[in-house]
Design goal:
This protein has 332 residues and is of the alpha/beta class. It has two domains: 36-55 and 208-294, no CATH class; 59-207 and 296-330, Vaccinia Virus protein VP39 (Rossmann fold), CATH 3.40.50. The chain is built from ten helices and 14 strands. It has helices at residues 17-33, 47-57, 63-80, 101-111, 123-136, 149-157, 178-189, 208-214, 221-237, 298-308; strands at residues 10-14, 37-38, 88-92, 114-120, 140-146, 164-168, 197-203, 246-253, 258-265, 269-273, 278-282, 287-294, 310-317, 323-330. The strands form three sheets. The chain has an eight-stranded mixed sheet with strand order 1-5-4-3-6-7-14-13, sandwiched between helices. Strands 2-12-9-8 form a four-stranded mixed sheet. Strands 10-11 form a two-stranded antiparallel sheet. The longest helix has 18 residues, at 63-80. The chain is globular and about 60 Å long.
Length: 332
C-alpha cells in the first residue's frame, strides 16, 4: 500500500513490549512487599496516564509548564544559536511535544528541514503527536522510539549520524535521587559527541505553598493521575484495588527539597492481584510512595552537571525565577 506524505516522513522504533510488561509485574510485586511500599513513577505513563498528565500541564496551579514554555518562546533563537548546522532534536519523555515546537520552528527557519526523534514509553502518544506535528510542518521528519530513556537513547544513536540536541524538559530529572540523576546523565554522555548539547529543565526551590498547590490541584486531576497507577494494575495485572479506598497525597519534604506523592489507604484492607497470585495488606493511613519531584538550587544544578561530566554553556529563567533551562556540553 502506498504511504501518505505524512507516513513517509515518520518511522516508529518499538522495543520489547513483553519485557517491559514483565518488569511492570516484577516491580509491582517488589514494591508492594517493601516497607514502606512504593511504585515507580515510570509506570504512570500508559496512554491514559499520559493524557492525564497533559491535562495537569494546563492547570493554573501547575506553573512548571507555563514557566518553561515562556523560556522556550522567549529564548528559542538564542538557544539554537549554540547548535552546529543540521542538528537533530532528540527528546526524552516527549509527551505531546507542545513546548518542543518552539525549538522545531526555530530550526526549521534556520535549516529548512529538521529531524526530530521523540522517546516516550507510550507508543500511542508517540504516534498521535507525530501525526499532529507532521501535518503542521511539511519539512519535518520524525523517528519515534517507544522505550524507556536509556534504551531509547541507545536505539536512536544507531540511526543518527549528525549533531544532536538532547531535550529533557519539564524538570523530569527531579524524579531521580541526586546520585541517580548524575549516574543517568553520565550514561547519556557516553552516547554524545563533543559537538552535541543537552538542554535540561530544572524546577527551582520556592515557597512550599506554591509547590504543594501545584501537586494538589483544585480540580483533582493530579489525584486521578496518581490513582491511575492502581487502575493500571487492575487493568494489566488483574488487580483488585478499590480506588475509592485510596486517596492522593502530595507534600513538600523540606529536608530533601522534594515534593513526595503518595497513595494513602483510607482503611485496613487486603488487595489481591491475580496475575501475581498474591495478596497485599494495608494498614489504615499506610501509603504507597509513587513519585518524588526534587526542586533545585543553582548550586545543585552546577554540582549535578559536574558529576555527570558536563559543564553549563548558558542558563535561562522565566521572569518569576521559578524555572531554569540549562544548556550543557560534555566535558571532552
Amino acid at each position: 500500500m502506498r504511504q501518505s506524505p505524512v507516513e513517509s516522513r515518520s518511522t516508529m522504533i518499538t522495543t520489547d513490549v513483553e519485557s517491559f510488561a514483565r518488569s511492570f509485574a516484577e516491580d509491582v510485586d517488589e514494591g508492594l512487599r517493601a516497607a514502606p511500599k512504593r511504585l515507580s513513577c515510570i509506570y504512570f505513563y500508559d496512554y491514559r496516564g499520559s493524557l492525564l498528565f497533559e491535562r495537569i500541564c494546563r492547570l493554573p496551579e501547575y506553573y512548571l509548564t507555563d514557566a518553561e514554555a515562556t523560556i522556550l518562546r522567549t529564548y528559542s533563537e538564542e538557544i539554537t544559536s549554540f547548535l552546529p548546522p543540521e542538528t537533530a532534536l532528540v527528546e526524552l519523555g516527549s509527551g505531546s511535544c507542545v513546548k518542543t515546537e518552539y525549538i522545531i520552528e526555530e530550526l526549521l527557519g534556520q535549516y529548512g528541514k529538521v529531524l526530530y526523534s521523540p522517546i516516550d514509553i507510550s507508543r500511542r502518544m508517540l504516534k498521535e503527536s507525530a501525526v499532529a506535528l507532521l501535518e503542521r510542518y511539511d519539512d519535518l521528519e520524525i523517528i519515534s522510539v517507544a522505550a524507556e530513556y536509556a534504551e531509547g537513547i541507545r536505539r536512536i544513536e544507531m540511526h543518527l549520524d549528525q549533531p544532536k540536541l538532547i531535550l529533557w524538559l519539564g524538570s523530569s530529572i527531579g524524579n531521580f535521587e541526586f546520585r541517580e540523576a548524575a549516574r543517568f546523565l553520565r550514561g547519556v554522555v557516553r552516547f554524545l559527541a563533543p559537538e552535541d548539547l543537552f538542554l535540561i529543565g530544572f524546577d527551582l526551590v520556592k515557597d512550599r505553598r506554591i509547590l504543594e498547590s501545584a501537586y494538589n490541584d483544585s480540580q483533582g486531576v493530579t489525584a486521578q493521575f496518581n490513582l491511575n497507577l492502581l487502575s493500571r494494575i487492575n487493568r494489566e495485572l488483574g488487580g483488585g484495588f478499590d480506588l475509592d479506598l485510596f486517596k492522593h497525597k502530595a507534600i513538600f519534604n523540606q529536608d530533601s527539597s522534594r515534593i513526595e506523592m503518595h497513595l494513602a489507604s483510607t482503611c485496613k484492607q487486603s488487595v489481591f492481584i491475580g496475575d501475581l497470585g498474591s495478596t497485599y495488606h494495608f494498614e489504615e493511613n499506610e501509603t504507597i510512595h509513587t513519585e518524588n519531584s526534587h526542586k533545585f538550587t543553582l548550586e545543585a544544578i552546577e554540582e549535578i552537571s559536574r558529576q555527570a561530566g558536563m559543564h553549563p554553556v548558558k542558563q535561562w529563567f522565566d521572569h518569576k525565577g521559578y524555572f531554569c533551562l540549562a544548556l550543557l556540553r560534555p566535558d571532552r
